[in-house]
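Researcher: Re-running this chain for the archive, since the previous output was lost when a drive failed. Same request as before.
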Amino acid sequence: MTCSCPECGSAGVPLIFGLPVPEAQEAARHGELALGGCMMPAEPPNWQCPHGHRWWDADETGWDEQLLTVLAAHGYPVD
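Model: Regenerated structure tokens:
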């Protein structure tokens, strides 16, 4: 599942906040994940497009599945 940007229509990638694990850092370098920094906003978005637009999508299960798929592709142990 890939969420499309409501502003420009580009494909979004999961957006995470906090200290990223090495696999998340690698995925971000490849453009498969976006890092939001350590400070989480009061109403955090969960997707970001290549143009930097950020938004929240209510399908958190889809976000979680996409995030785990990306992390697993970079060696994160997913059980």
